[in-house]
Amino acid sequence: MWVLGFATMLMMATAAVLATGQAMVRNLALQSSVDRSALAGADVLVGVVPGIPCDHVSWLLENEGFSVVSCELNSASLRVVGQASFAGVRWSAKARAGVGEGGQ
Questions:
Q1: Which residue from 3, 40, 43, 93 has the fewest beta carbons nearer than 10 Å?
Q2: Alpha-carbon distance 23 to 43, whole Å?
Q3: What mean pLDDT do residues 32-36 have?
Q4: What are 61-90's pLDDT values in tens digits?
Q5: Bridge partners of residue 71, in order along the sequence
């Protein structure tokens, strides 16, 4: 009987470790995607690429499986907040890109 209990506890611990690992990978993917989308939006903002900055941000995040919480523009930068979910839990990541102080 104790072998069955031990095996059950071992399987539960393994499932918890796997779920935590998947959530961590999802979080890293979200942050990478938000960073890339902010850079893509900033390219549009400064005129390197034609288009509307927040449209590029939305397109990139949604194609990578995430959602846009906000996309805020000012004259020299872009702030992006993206959201992910895993196992019913939602979280967000932020990024900013644009021309820095004294930039071209």
A1: 3
A2: 30
A3: 96
A4: 999 999 999 999 988 899 999 999 888 889
A5: 80
Range of the domain at 87: 2-98
The CA distance from 97 to 2, in Å, is: 57
**Count of other CB atoms within 10 angstroms of residue 15:** 10
Is 63 among the domain residues?
yes
Tell me, yes or no, whether 56 lies in a domain: yes
> Is pLDDT above 90 for 101?
no
The reported pTM is: 0.81
What was the pLDDT predicted at 102?
55
